[in-house]
Amino acid sequence: MMKRSSSTIPFGYKLKEDNTLEPIDKELSVLKEMKDGVKAGAFSLRGAVEILESQTGRKLSAMGLKKIIDKDKSKETPTTGILGKDK
Fold first, then answer.
1. CB-based contacts of 47: which residues, under 8 Å, 6+ apart?
2. What secondary structure does DSSP assign to 15-67, as a single string?
3. CB neighbourhood size of 11 (10 A)
4. Is 50 domain-assigned?
5. What residues make up the domain containing 54?
6. Residues 6+ apart with CB under 8 A from 24
7. pTM of the entire structure?
8. Which H or E run contains 69?
């Protein structure tokens, strides 16, 4: 369980009565498939959000999906040095 840290409830989670976030497995698995598909070039951002909405019933903008993908990329890429660039 995650503690809520903003006014927006992230895609793939729902707010519980105790103000914590509970994961929704179906939404998270479809989101992962769409992120992987966009990264691989199989889907456009807009195509992926249409699939997400049809499979989960929950809306997400193309820019919202892009932010999620970019956030994942920043977690995957370890930074080195003061400015985060390899020399």
1. none
2. E-TTSEEEE-HHHHHHHHHHHHHHHHTSS-HHHHHHHHHHHHS----HHHHHH
3. 19
4. yes
5. 25-60
6. 12, 13, 14
7. 0.78
8. helix 62-76
Total domains in the chain come to 1
- DSSP one-letter code for 70: H
Query: What does the angle CA 41 – CA 29 – CA 56 come to, to the nearest 5 degrees?
Result: 95
Q: What is the pLDDT of residues 23-38, one digit of tens each?
A: 999 999 999 999 999 9
pLDDT tens digits, one per residue of 62-84: 999 999 999 988 877 665 656 65
Q: Residue 72 carries which side chain, given as an amino acid letter?
A: D
For residue 14, give both structure tokens: 């729902």
